[in-house]
Amino acid sequence: MKRSLRGLLASAFAALLISGCAIQQPGVVDRVPDGDAGRLLSQAEQQGPEQASLSRLEAANILAQQGQREAAFDAAAAVEEGSLSERDRVRWALLFSELARALDDPRAVLRATQVLDDELPMQGNEQQTLRERAQWARQALDEPGRTQGTPASLAGTEIRRIMVALPQSGPLSSIADTISSAMREHASIRGQGVELSFVDSTQYSMDELYSRAEQMNAQLLVGPLDKEQVTRLEQQPSVPMPTLALNYGNSAQNQASGLFQYGLSAEDEARQAANRAYQDGHRQMAVMVPDNDWGRRVGEAFWNEFHALGGEVSNAVRYNPSNDVSSAVQTALNVSGDRAQLGNVDALFLLALPEYARQVPPMMDFYYAPDLPIYATSHLFEGTQERRLNQDLNDVMFVDIPWQIPDAAVGGAEALPFYSSYQALQGEGDASLFRLQAMGVDAYELATRLSDLSSIQGFNGSTGTLSLSGDGRIHRELPWARFQNGRPAPILSPGLLGDQ
After folding, report:
1. Which of 45, 219, 224, 308 is the most exposed place for a label (fewest CB within 10 A)?
2. Hey, which residues does 329 pair with through a beta bridge?
């Protein structure tokens, strides 16, 4: 599956969404700085974090100019880049990524190019250089033999003891409870004799959780759920025990050996929408996303993927979900007077919750754009068969998990993966939580398969067709549906047989 770099073209996306000019700083200094590298490194041992990092950076620069690549790499790797000024962080990233690529260390390249996520002021050629190096690193990690391997402690074994560390209090507790309950029910239905031990992750640090898992003789840990905790884990060289995190970190790449990441990623859905729209022949897209961090991340994922394919995002709108829909639609469709001007727009990507999403197609009709194709994520569908409410979504195309759209996905519920668990869980609780229940089912299945990573590639799960990337992140490929008469219905394969 085609993958895009997180943050690729994010600055261009922001330029469409907000006004203002970027400030460019002077280029990276190429000259050999005065001084002795050894002396600078010795001084760094006695200095505070900020000055020590700067000394190590200057020492690395000297060593690199002298042709001592490995010594320069070691000095640059010891830099705490977060303590550098913005400009020095860019200098460090350019130097460290160059050295890491020369030494064939893609994970170090990705560590350096994480500065792209922080939107630091840098020149266009510097951004392009870092993006190209990050792309090389991703491709290198996807090569056979360079992917995240089966943890040595699990190789050739059957997984029978799993510790599940999720929060039982706090803002994520209801999500965690839904996932945990589904795991328990599915494990009982599967009857494989796998022992699940549940621990409240809010009561312990990650180090303490790993210690408890070892004391309980667990073979692997499922968790954490918190995005920031996952980010901290993925920045380590390795984790103490094979771990299946139930979220994705913020880093450009997962660097931790033994750490696997799985979740219901809206960014994955946006990238699939970009691919689908492009394969259907669209080249100029309008984008409507909420004006919040979630909307920004998903919008950037769509933007990056569509541009990587060769398409153009001609209009990008960040809307306030509390405001009237008409102003956002007017901007997205270049409305002049009472009519949309679609000379530079041939389709729309929509990220919206149901109540807002249902208002968009009627508003497009009002502005004489009833036939403009709409591609959306699963978030506009509650999962209930509200035909009357969903009539306004007719002809909208969207991705969703197989368990939510069984007729469109596999031709009927009986053909769904883990149908017995589907039946047992379908009638439990709020329909809006059904995706999380399906996630609990797949979390169990993934955890029990980590001793044989080949069984994950192309795995048909409750939440989509799952595959493992080179850095241990698990991605979902989802089926497509189109609303017809207020219900999700199947659509043909992308770009074939004139299905638009």
Report:
1. 45
2. none
Q: CB-based contacts of 324: which residues, under 8 Å, 6+ apart?
A: none
- Work out the end-to-end distance of the chain between its first and last CA atoms, rounded to an integer number of angstroms: 23
CB 381 within 8 A of CB 398: yes
Q: Pick from 447, 402, 449: which is nearest to 166 by CA? A: 447
- How far apart are alpha carbons 166 and 150 in whole angstroms? 24
Residue 313's beta-bridge partner residues?
285
- Strand, coil or helix: what is 430? coil
HSE value, Cβ hemisphere, 13 Å, CA-based, for 433: 17
Dump strand ranges (E) for 295-346. Answer: 312-319
pLDDT on residue 219: 95
Q: Which pLDDT tens digit goes with each residue over 406-464? A: 999 999 999 999 999 999 998 776 777 899 999 999 999 999 999 988 889 889 999 99
- Map residue 208 onto helix, strand or coil: helix
Instruction: Write down the mean pLDDT value for the chain.
Output: 86
DSSP at 428: S
Contact between 466 and 366 under an 8 Å Cβ cutoff? The reply is: no
Beta carbons within 10 angstroms of residue 2's beta carbon: 10
CA 322 distance to own-chain centroid: 26
Write phi, then psi, for 100 (nearest 5 degrees): -65, -40
**Average pLDDT in the 102-128 region?**
80
* Both structure tokens of 496: 């074939």
Q: What torsion do the CA atoms of 306, 312, 318, 319 make, to the nearest 10 degrees?
A: -100
Beta partners for 238?
257
User: Of 408, 404, 409, 448, which is closest to residue 425 (Cα–Cα)?
Assistant: 404
Closest CA to 86 of 1, 4, 146, 23: 23
| Helical segments of 383-433, H only | 387-390, 406-410, 419-426
d(CA 127, CA 115): 10
The predicted structure's pLDDT at residue 432? 75
Ranges of beta strands (E only) in 281-378 are 284-290, 312-319, 347-350, 374-376
Q: Which pTM does this prediction carry?
A: 0.71
Supply the pLDDT for residue 141. 67
